[in-house]
Amino acid sequence: MASLSKKFLAELIGTFFLVFVGTGSVVVDTLISRTVNPKLVGIGMVGGFAEWFGVSLAFGIAVIIFIYAVGRISGAHFNPAVTLGLLSTGNISGKDSVVYIIAQLIGAVIGSICIYFCFGPTSATVAALGATYPASNISFIQATVAELIGTFLLVFVVMGVAVDKKAEPGFAGVAIGLTVAAAIFVLGPITGGSINPARTFGPYLIDSLVGGGNLWNYLLIYIIGPIVGGILGALTYKGLATGTEECDIE
Question: Whole-model pTM?
Answer without folding.
Answer: 0.92
